[in-house]
Amino acid sequence: MAGEASAEAARKSTQEEQHQAPEEEGAEPQFPVHGDALAAAFFDLDNTVMQGAALFHFGRGLYKRKFFETRDLVRFAWQQAWFRMAGIEDPEHMQDARDSALSIVKGHRVAELQSIGEEIYDEYMAERIWPGTRALAQAHLDAGQKVWLVTAAPVEIATVIARRLGLTGALGTVAESVDGVYTGKLVGEPLHGPAKAEAVRALAAAEGLDLSRCAAYSDSHNDIPMLSLVGHPYAINPDSKLRKHARGLDWRLRDYRTGRKAAKVGIPAAAGVGAVAGGTAAAIALHKRRR
């Protein structure tokens, strides 16, 4: 099963790299709960933690390193442009991107792609992290809780991003490898939609977590199954379907694309600072594009 494979891969990665998070208060009101060992936070990646899709940025980096030709880059660029304008995931675009990525990495060593992933993060991803969402994740870390990325992106890329952000680990799509070399196939299905909820449930069971005390964050209605699992669901930069669903269930909302205030109280105070920074950064970027 995709969820079980992702959860197992995430746990193995975390066992290799343990992070000690400082403990300090920074929530209003008292959430995340300081010292609650049965709670954790799960963050979607694309358009929640980072502007755009990680897989597309990764594709740009591979093109720069001559892993594929210009026509493939054009397709990646179109998909990324559509994603940014629409703000939602298109299943056909995402499937095409995954198929392309699998064919591109086939025959390459896992260690090679992990090393390249570190470089690509610095080149294309680091500046696209939403400060507000980063502050939310940090609030959980400061409360002594584990924080996981949960994404359809390859687990190797997701793990790099999680490590660079100081998070606990990542659940992601698992590509098959034999003797450290990619085969061009997946282990199970992509970690998308209901598969994310399955993976979170499996990880929570393995970690001894109480999902009613956990939090989850996402921008997409595709992640409603994951958000519905936890006691503290958050809609971050939500698409129209998720926004409507979240309002109907009285979930907390936060939109860093515009700097709008949260629709519900209870967002960590540090995230408010992040929202201002995120809104400012977006305004500067828009200004530069229009010049």
Descriptive account of the structure:
By secondary structure, this protein is of the alpha/beta class. The chain has one domain. Helix 9 links the parallel strand 6 (215-218) and strand 7. 46% of the residues are buried. The protein has helices spanning 2-16, 54-64, 70-86, 91-105, 110-125, 131-142, 155-164, 194-207, 224-229, 240-248, 269-290, and strands spanning 40-43, 146-154, 169-173, 175-178, 181-186, 215-218, 232-236, 252-254. The protein is globular and about 50 Å long. The strands form 2 sheets. Strands 3-2-1-6-7-8 form a 6-stranded parallel sheet, with helices on both faces. A two-stranded antiparallel ribbon has the order 4-5. Residues 17-28 and 259-291 have low confidence and may be disordered. Belongs to the HAD-like hydrolase superfamily. SerB family.
Quick structural overview:
The protein has one domain (31-259).
